[in-house]
């Protein structure tokens, strides 16, 4: 109950802050150009969003994060991070009189990565149970970065269409900038903030206090350095080194990070399989269910079968059961590693009970196609206390 109240409070507070940020950025966008220029900037900035979100949703398939939190991450990047970073940069310019080059190469990376990374830190402190490892950190960092890039691109593209500093604008100017920002470097902001996501993911899965403190901090430093290197290449010597930086720094770093993300996704399957096998050994589910839960393709097949055999109700039961089992598996993995959240016993019991209720309605794929049948049922008759006494785990 306490966890639900805390989660609800987190959602409400972040939503209110996001609304304030949206009002601020709405005013900034309204003052940034004519309605026509703003419309062009908005349309062009929106084009990369869906493909980018799709990439991170693909990474997130083994244990899908709550859609509400992913939307909050996008909104935080689009409205809160952008507005706060803008205010900080304007304050720096007004108070310290920082030049454009220094502001772009140093001040912008420091403030923008701090405001983007703050959302992931808030998750770490207030919704820690949603973070199971590095891949979750990457997904949330990516969503925040996509939201930030969307709003920032609107500002830049609107200015490019309107023209400034004697440079003619028009649609060709906006499209030219879109090619640079939306096609050649759409992953820039998600890429920078991914270092913070990795750091937070390492902190969640580590038993060392040093790692828990230094990993997020180190991730932030790396995010600022990568961001600063890219921004600096665009402003120093009028951008003469931009292509070299892009080719020899951004591209290799992005490929390495992408490979790491794919490896982390494959690792999640192995982790989930081992955890569910151990759950089956302890009696929380039937061993025959594990293959239908640990592999994405098998999950989809099981859902299609359940829908053919039992209609929409059969599919809903299967989807709900798979979701509970996957959550239980990753929670159990953290328990086995000794890094489970403080409320893991209550959460684990909730998943086990939900699975027990859903299990009689499950329609699993069977060797025979003539009639649908149920997989062997594991009856949960023992109390959590007696289960612990028999080494069945914390539930």
Topology:
Elements: H1 2-32, H2 35-46, H3 49-59, H4 67-96, H5 100-126, H6 134-162, H7 171-184, H8 188-205, H9 209-235, H10 242-281, H11 291-294, H12 296-337, H13 344-358, H14 384-389
List keywords for this structure.
single chain; 395 residues; mainly alpha; 2 domains; 14 helices; elongated
Folded structure, characterized:
The structure is a single chain. This protein has 395 residues and is mainly α. The protein folds into two domains: 2-240, no CATH class; 271-389, no CATH class. It is 77% helix and 0% strand. It contains 14 helices and no strands. The chain has helices spanning 2-32, 35-46, 49-59, 67-96, 100-126, 134-162, 171-184, 188-205, 209-235, 242-281, 291-294, 296-337, 344-358, 384-389. Helix 3 runs antiparallel to helix 6 (134-162). The longest helix has 42 residues, at 296-337. The protein is elongated, with a radius of gyration of 24 Å. Residues 378-390 have low confidence and may be disordered. One of its GO terms (molecular function) is peptidase activity. It comes from Nocardioides aurantiacus. Pfam families: PrsW-protease. Residues 364-395 are annotated as: Disordered. Keywords: Membrane, Transmembrane, Transmembrane helix.
- Average pLDDT works out at 88
Number of helices: 14
Give the percentage of residues in beta strands: under 5%
Radius of gyration: 24 Å
What share of residues is helical? over 70%
Shape: elongated
Provide the low-confidence segments as ranges.
378-390
Number of domains: 2
Number of strands: 0
Question: Largest sheet, described in full?
Answer: none
Topology as a string of helices (H) and strands (E): HHHHHHHHHHHHHH
Class inferred from helices and paired strands: mainly alpha
| Distance between the amino and carboxyl termini | 18 Å
């Amino acid at each position: 109950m306490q966890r639900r109240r805390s989660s609800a409070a987190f959602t409400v507070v972040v939503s209110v802050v996001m609304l304030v940020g949206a009002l601020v950025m709405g005013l900034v966008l309204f003052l940034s150009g004519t309605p026509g220029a703003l419309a062009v900037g908005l349309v062009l900035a929106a084009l990369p969003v869906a493909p980018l979100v799709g990439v991170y949703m693909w990474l997130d398939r083994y244990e899908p994060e709550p859609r509400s939190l992913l939307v909050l991450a996008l909104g935080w990047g689009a409205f809160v991070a952008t507005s706060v970073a803008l205010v900080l940069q304007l304050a720096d310019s007004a108070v310290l009189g920082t030049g454009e080059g220094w502001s772009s190469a140093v001040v912008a990376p420091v403030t923008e990565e701090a405001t983007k990374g703050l959302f992931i830190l808030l998750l770490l402190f207030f919704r820690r149970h949603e973070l199971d490892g590095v891949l979750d950190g990457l997904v949330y960092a990516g969503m925040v970065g996509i939201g930030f890039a969307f709003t920032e691109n609107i500002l830049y593209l609107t200015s490019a269409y309107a023209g400034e500093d004697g440079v003619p604008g028009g649609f060709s100017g906006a499209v030219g900038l879109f090619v640079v920002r939306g096609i050649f470097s759409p992953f820039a902001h998600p890429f920078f903030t991914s270092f913070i996501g990795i750091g937070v993911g390492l902190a969640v899965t580590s038993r060392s206090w040093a790692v828990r403190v230094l990993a997020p901090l180190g991730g932030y430093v790396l995010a600022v350095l990568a961001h600063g290197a890219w921004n600096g290449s665009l402003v120093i010597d009028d951008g003469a080194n931009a292509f070299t930086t892009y080719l020899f720094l951004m591209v290799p770093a992005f490929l390495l990070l992408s490979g790491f993300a794919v490896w982390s996704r494959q690792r999640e399957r192995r982790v989930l399989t081992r955890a569910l096998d151990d759950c089956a050994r302890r009696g929380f589910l039937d061993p025959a269910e594990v293959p239908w839960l640990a592999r994405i393709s098998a999950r989809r097949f099981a859902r299609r079968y359940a829908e053919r055999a039992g209609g929409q109700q059969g599919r809903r039961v299967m989807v709900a059961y798979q979701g509970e089992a996957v959550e239980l598996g990753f929670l159990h993995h953290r328990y086995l590693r000794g890094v489970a959240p403080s409320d893991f016993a209550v959460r684990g019991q909730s998943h086990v009970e939900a699975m027990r209720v859903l299990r009689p309605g499950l329609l699993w794929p069977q060797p025979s196609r003539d009639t649908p049948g149920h997989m062997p049922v594991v009856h949960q008759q023992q109390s959590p206390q007696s289960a612990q006494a028999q080494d069945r785990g914390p539930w």
